[in-house]
Amino acid sequence: MLPSESETAPHSEDEHIGARAMMDAGVLDNPKVDAVFGLHLIPGYSVSTIGYRPSAILASGDTFAIKVSGKQTHGGFPWNGIDPIVSAAQIVMGLQTVVSRQLNLTKEAAVISIGSIHGGNRENIIPENVELRGTVRTFDNQMRDDTLSRMRITAESIAQASGAKAEVHFLKPSYLATVNDANLTEQMLPTMKQIAGQKAILVPKSSASEDFSEFQQKVPGVFFFLGSTDPKKDAATAAPNYSPKFEIDEASLAIGTRAMTALALDFLSLP
Q1: Which residues of the chain have a pLDDT value below 50?
Q2: Which terminus of the chain, N or C, has less C-beta within 10 A?
């Protein structure tokens, strides 16, 4: 089971943002929404190429923080304390066995990554606490629940084995996997192919995440990718999203506008 609200740590950002805030404001209810469509520009594909997938296309996204508490002591006398740095290092390695040894990866992929470690301020002092922060990505919501539960058990047990204590917090906001409605995707594929000049291709899943998935919990939805690389350039070497070298061919903006407009109009014309 996922941690209850009382078990989660506060997040520095306002969790009432994006899709959730829009839904709370009634965006799906007034007027009543029957389907949702979303797109994301993506380098690596030339302009006018549309990438689709009639199932999970983006992963869930969960952020976590683990506070490992020990007992401060001098580095020359580690037996007088409890070393949270060693426990934290063991937790980092132990969390990787959640994916490699505890999850059924023939069902779906999963990722647990540690992005930051903070603890201590001198080379000869064993600190009182260490904090780990990272992200979890899955493509199946039941696997997500199982992964988060196993992470908690693994971290707490490893810390306990050395006399330390681990507190695992899953932070807000978090997002479920973006799973496209298969029937809606099939219905709208002719539209995507027409807009893309038949360059609508089946793409692999991405371990990025999107709060578009919040809409999909309420109504059928299709999220797709739109190529953004200048056709004169090598798409294979294009800088990825979030890179300081990221750039787009602005022709993709017009194509994206046409795609979203056509999808809405053609959906409304369905029998």
Answers
A1: 1-13
A2: C
